[in-house]
Specification:
- Residues 387-411, 424-454 are annotated as: Disordered.
- Pfam families: Dsl1_C, Dsl1_N.
- Residues 6-360 form the Retrograde transport protein Dsl1 N-terminal domain.
- Residues 560-753 form the Retrograde transport protein Dsl1 C-terminal domain.
- It comes from Saccharomyces pastorianus.
- The longest helix has 36 residues, at 38-73.
- Strand 1 and strand 2 (138-141) form a beta hairpin.
- The relative contact order is 0.05.
- This protein has three domains: 52-204, Methane Monooxygenase Hydroxylase, Chain G, domain 1, CATH 1.20.58.2230; 209-338, Retrograde transport protein Dsl1, N-terminal domain (Methane Monooxygenase Hydroxylase, Chain G, domain 1, Up-down Bundle), CATH 1.20.58.2230; 344-392 and 420-442 and 462-470 and 477-645, no CATH class.
- It is mainly α and 754 residues long.
- Helices cover 66% and strands 5% of the residues.
- It contains 31 helices and eight strands.
- The N and C termini lie far apart (171 Å).
């Protein structure tokens, strides 16, 4: 070294002139040169080397950022992604970077966040404006695009594989992935997340396309066409009707199938098939069945051929989609197209629908012309039975008096009325009378006043009841006069005539067809059920007129088995409900007697029970007339006198003197207000009322007076045990009562011996 630089002092002087080497001016003293510390010089050299290394490391950040920008500009999107990933990794692990100031790191991180957003925005733009062009009225797909200033060639399959693998590796967006988690700017992070979610929803799951197709296929008024050259699906409105509408719907569905089969990449075909396939399978089959009468109009119908083509395409779509959530072999549709019996059955469904619509149109008539009444003749089948019943004369009644002791104990009242419901009443009847009346009133208020008056006039029903006569009970309510019609005629609406025409037309439509008989019978029953349901809804308060109409309809066509069954159920259901109300009102009145015998309220009987019996039971059954009207009237009186009153009173432990008068008055009210002229010649009706009236007569009497009635033969309708039960209930156990009972046994026993 010394050989190279012999003048050592000169070298030191030159070095001392370098400001980087000099520590400070204090190293100079009085112009004299200070000797340089060699160790200090080496330390400074190390510091400079370290700073140079830091700058070199920071330079790699700049290179990576440039690399990201370059890849983004030349649309090397996958390389851009990996460069960005490397940049983020260095930002996390590079010691030189981490030693920099917070502001420096924040500045770099914010800039890199913009690169994230720029990359995702580029992906979004390529999908939105490149591969897919989706508007409100069209869907266009291009499998290869040229993008950017340099017209970079981008393949859809490669592009989507990259997007799916890097951004949605598990089939959804992972918010913990580095691409989102490493970002520091909340705004940029949210924008990236929003765009990725949109890409996932609209271009991975194709939700918008699924929605557009769902809302347009198999819907009248919508039309879809497919342009193969442009690979575009066009949605428009359609004004076609009838057969043309069916053709439009089918061609629209075919266009969707063609688009999925020929215009889409495999991944998108699979996605759409998975989302729409079950709907395609169900709705296509349903549409073909519902429109079988149009599609199968003839064996060589163009629509039939179109359905066959679509059926094959749908089968191909399942195979090419490789999905497992739905299948379509095409066999069901093919069988439908080739099976004549099935064709006729489906045709029957269509005809049934049109006939039900025809029935519905009857009740939609604003003039309500179906309510017009006409007089018809009661058939022999309904009048002969009544003639036989009322043919007994008074001598027959006298003969029955003489043989009253031979009456079976199983029917002590000897009413000779078949009452299937006699034992069907439980101890608890949970009918709220006030609610029932309120409901009835509310329903009546909903009906047009004009219509209500028209029905009342047609039925000759006087809704006004004399309150005074109800209060004192002396003037009994007159039973409804069935009008000026003779016993062989009755009034019906236009409904029977209208339905007979519809029924005949329905049957004649398939008189010579190959329809399965059981299937036809099922559909014919369905037609009758629909008719009955609509009639019931429109006769909410005129159920007896509905019964008269249905009975007349059955007379005209005895093969209306379903209507016959429903009519019988209608009458029984209506009467059973009204029986329950009557029973509860009677029980309410009897409870009032027990709880307040000296001053009981009679509202339950006078204000509610008697008007209800007249308006809701007696009048409607008289309106029905015929054998059923009389039979059900007798059945009701049997129920009222026996089940509701007599049996309930006999359940008491004892009857006080005051209550015996109350009960006698109750029986008298019921007898006076259930005088039905239609049954005046019916023997069982006479005995029924006579026995019940006798009960009301003896209830308030003393034992001596009752025994006088017994000696006079007034209790010929009462069995011995029954009469004794009443005496034991009315009077305390005294020698007088025991003597009376002994007399009854003795006299009745002698009569039996004779």
């Amino acid at each position: 070294m010394e050989s190279l630089f012999p003048n050592k002092g000169e070298i030191i002087r030159e070095l001392l002139k370098d400001p980087l080497i000099l520590k400070n001016d204090s190293k100079r003293s009085n112009g004299s040169e200070l000797e340089l510390d060699s160790s200090d010089l080496l330390q400074r050299e190390a510091i400079l080397a370290n700073e140079l290394n830091i700058l070199d490391n920071l330079k790699t950040f700049l290179n990576l950022i440039k690399e990201v920008k370059t890849n983004l500009n030349i649309l090397e999107l996958e390389n851009c992604y990996y460069s960005l990933q490397s940049l983020r990794k260095k930002m996390r692990n590079n010691a030189a970077y981490l030693k920099q100031s917070f502001n420096f790191q924040q500045s770099i991180s914010t800039y890199v966040d913009t690169l994230h957003l720029e990359l995702v925005s580029t992906l979004y733009k390529i999908l939105t404006n490149g591969f897919w062009k989706i508007t409100e009225n069209s869907i266009q797909f291009t499998p290869t695009v040229e993008w950017g200033k340099d017209k970079v060639h981008i393949e859809y399959d490669t592009f989507m594989d990259f997007v799916a693998q890097q951004y949605f590796p598990k089939g959804s967006l992972d918010n913990q992935a580095w691409f989102i988690l490493d970002m520091t700017s909340a705004d940029s992070q949210e924008q990236v997340r929003a765009k990725l979610n949109t890409i996932m929803k609209e271009y991975m799951n194709l939700s918008r396309i699924v929605s557009m197709i769902k809302n347009s296929i198999f819907i009248s008024g919508k039309e879809i066409s497919y342009e193969n050259e442009k690979n575009i699906l066009v949605f428009s409105k359609s004004s076609s009707h009838g057969q043309h509408c069916v053709s439009t719907v089918l061609t629209s569905f075919e266009a969707v199938c063609d688009f999925m089969l020929d215009g889409l990449a495999f991944r998108d075909r699979k996605t759409l098939s998975y989302e729409l396939g079950p709907l395609f399978n169900t709705e296509f089959t349903k549409f073909v069945k519902n429109n079988a009468s149009i599609i199968l109009e003839s064996l060589d119908s163009p629509l039939k051929n179109l359905v066959s083509v679509i059926n094959n395409k749908l089968t191909r779509l399942v195979a090419k989609s490789e999905v497992t959530n739905w299948t379509h072999s095409g066999k069901e549709i093919q069988d439908l197209l080739m099976n004549k019996r099935l064709y006729y059955n489906l045709l029957l469904d269509k005809v049934l629908e049109s006939h039900i619509s025809e029935i519905r149109s009857i009740f939609e008539d604003p003039k309500k012309s179906w309510q017009n009444l006409e007089v018809v003749e009661l058939t022999t089948s309904y009048t002969n039975t009544m003639s036989e019943k009322i043919g007994k004369n008074d001598s027959d009644v006298q003969n029955e008096k003489e043989h009253h002791n031979a009456v079976s104990k199983d029917d002590d009242w000897n009413w000779e009325v078949e009452d299937d419901d006699a034992d069907a009443w439980g101890d608890e009847i949970d009918v709220n009378i006030d609610d029932e009346e309120e409901k009835t009133n509310q329903e009546k208020e909903k009906e047009p006043e004009e219509e209500e008056n028209a029905w009342d006039e047609a039925w000759a029903i006087d809704e006004n009841i004399d309150d005074a006569s109800l209060e004192n009970g002396k003037e009994h309510l007159k039973a409804h006069d069935v009008g000026s019609l003779d016993k062989d005629h009755i009034e019906v609406t236009q409904l029977p005539k209208l339905f007979l025409a519809i029924s005949q037309n329905f049957k004649s439509s398939f008189a010579d067809s190959h329809i399965d008989e059981q299937y036809f019978a099922y559909k014919y029953n369905l037609l009758q059920t629909s008719y009955m349901a609509m009639c019931t809804a429109n006769f909410s308060h005129n159920w007896c007129q509905l019964y008269v109409d249905m009975r007349y309809l059955i007379e005209r066509d005895e093969k209306l088995y379903r209507i016959k069954e429903l009519t019988r159920n209608l009458l029984e259901t209506k009467l059973n409900m009204k029986y329950r109300i009557v029973c509860q009102l009677i029980r309410h009145q009897l409870t009032e007697f027990r709880e307040n015998e000296r001053n009981p309220s009679w509202d339950a009987t006078i204000e509610k029970l008697l008007p209800y019996i007249l308006k809701e039971i007696v009048r409607p059954l008289q309106k029905i007339r015929g054998e059923e009207g009389s039979r059900y009237l007798l059945s009701f009186l049997n129920f009222l006198y026996n089940d509701c009153v007599t049996k309930e009173i006999l359940k008491w432990q004892i009857i006080s003197e005051v209550n015996s008068e109350n009960l006698g008055e109750l029986v008298s009210l019921l007898v006076n207000n259930t005088d039905i002229q239609l049954l005046a010649k019916e023997p069982s009706y006479k005995k029924m009322r006579e026995k019940f009236a006798t009960m009301g007569k003896f209830l308030p009497l003393h034992l001596k007076e009752i025994m006088e009635m017994f000696y006079n033969g007034d209790f010929y309708l009462f069995a011995t045990d029954e009469l004794i039960q009443w005496i034991e209930l009315l009077f305390a156990d005294t020698p007088l009562r025991r003597n009376a009972i002994d007399d009854i046994y003795e006299i009745r026993g002698t009569a039996l011996d004779d």
